[in-house]
Design a protein that fits this description.
With about 350 residues, the chain is of the alpha/beta class. It folds into three domains: about 5-90, MurE/MurF, N-terminal domain (Udp-n-acetylmuramoylalanyl-d-glutamate--2,6- Diaminopimelate Ligase, Chain: A, domain 1), CATH 3.40.1390.10; about 105-310, Hexapeptide repeat proteins (UDP N-Acetylglucosamine Acyltransferase, domain 1); about 320-353. It is built from four helices and 39 strands. The relative contact order is 0.05.
Length: about 350
């Protein structure tokens, strides 16, 4: 691959400072970039790599000091966003799967749309409806009456249980399970658990991406719903009857318990946990390991367990870190008070004499 730097700069509306005639062969991280590669500098913590990077060109902010004359700069408003845009422009996904493999098991009553590709040992059960330009990779299993919309990609070893509905342009990564039974049990007078049938479904709307090893439980009744544009990271648990609003993000190892509702444009960061039957309003950020034990009705940032609004949480965290100092000061003050009381008592006794 050879990319003219002027062409790349035009894609991101950037201003070139330096040699405009160089060509780029690839993109790389600033600390690993070699001659002929393009990198970017966005976070201050990575400035230490700038003097030694071997990249031929670098995306920087407009006010970045141009202290090297052996590298070409592309000035942009946001280097990380510009870099992502270039990756999207030059490295569009290439899902290398075509045709229907002879080992695939497709029920005669299933419908597979035009130009769809089915890999080795895939099982497509009765009543399934697969759209056009869909790719289903090896060993994936779709049980009865599953729907998959146009242009979706289902990677290897994915299991999609009966009745699940997958929208258009959805990506589901390897080993995820869509529509597993919700965690529903009834306990009797002898404290024995009895399984409650989970008779609902899962609905995944358009433009959703599900990471690897994700579990999305079917609803006990009705539907577990992941709405349009949601992005789910690896190793996430989404329980029965959960609803996740449009364009929200759920990061790795986060968990959402049954019947909770997450609003639009929310971020659940790593290991955040939401208890059951709660409502999180739109535009909420749950920071890593936030533990949510009650509903959140105010947009903003939340941190800690149990989670609090982030400014309050940081103030409390500061006090926690100083508890030993506080304890030492209290002991000193108590000792001083005792000394003063003793002295006052002695003065009182002397006057009475």
């Amino acid at each position: 691959m050879k990319i003219k730097l002027e062409e790349a700069a035009e894609v991101v509306n950037g201003n070139i400072v330096g040699d405009k005639n160089i060509a780029i062969s690839s993109f790389a991280k600033i600390e690993e970039a070699k001659s002929g590669e393009l990198t970017f500098l966005y976070l201050d913590s990575y400035k230490k790599f700038f003097p030694s990077t071997k990249a031929s060109a670098i995306l920087v902010k407009h006010d970045f000091p141009k202290t090297r004359d052996n590298i070409t700069y592309i000035e942009v408003e946001s280097p990380n966003k510009a870099f992502a845009k270039l990756l999207q422009h030059y490295f569009k996904p290439d899902y290398k799967l075509s045709g229907i493999d002879s080992t695939a098991s497709i029920h005669p009553a299933a419908i597979v749309g035009r130009n769809s590709a089915i890999g080795k040992n895939v099982v497509i059960s009765e009543g399934c409806r697969i759209g056009s330009n869909v790719k289903i990779f090896h060993n994936a299993v779709l049980l009865e009456d599953v729907e998959v919309g146009d242009n979706s990609v289902i990677y290897q070893n994915v299991s999609i249980r009966e009745g699940s509905r997958i929208g258009r342009n959805v990506i589901i990564h390897a080993n995820s399970v869509i529509g597993s039974d919700g965690f529903g049990y009834d306990i009797d007078e002898n404290r024995i658990f009895h399984k409650v049938p989970q008779i609902g479904i899962v609905i995944i709307e358009d433009d959703v991406e599900i990471g690897s090893n994700v579990s999305v439980d079917r609803a006990s009744l009705g539907a577990t719903v992941i709405k349009k544009g949601v992005k789910v990271d690896n190793l996430v648990q989404i329980a029965h009857n959960v609803v996740i609003g449009e364009n929200s993000i759920v990061a790795g190892q986060a968990g959402i318990a049954g019947s909770s509702k997450i609003g639009k444009n929310c971020y659940l960061l790593g290991q955040a946990g939401v208890s059951g039957h709660l409502e999180i309003t739109d535009d909420v950020i749950l920071h890593p390991q936030a533990g949510i034990s009650k509903s959140i009705s105010k947009p903003g940032n939340y941190f800690g367990s149990p989670a609090k609004e982030i400014k309050t949480a940081f103030k409390l965290e500061s006090h926690y870190r100083n508890l030993q100092n506080y304890a030492d000061r209290i002991m000193q003050l108590e000792k001083r008070v005792e000394e003063l009381l003793k002295k006052a008592e002695e003065m009182k006794n002397n006057k009475s004499i």
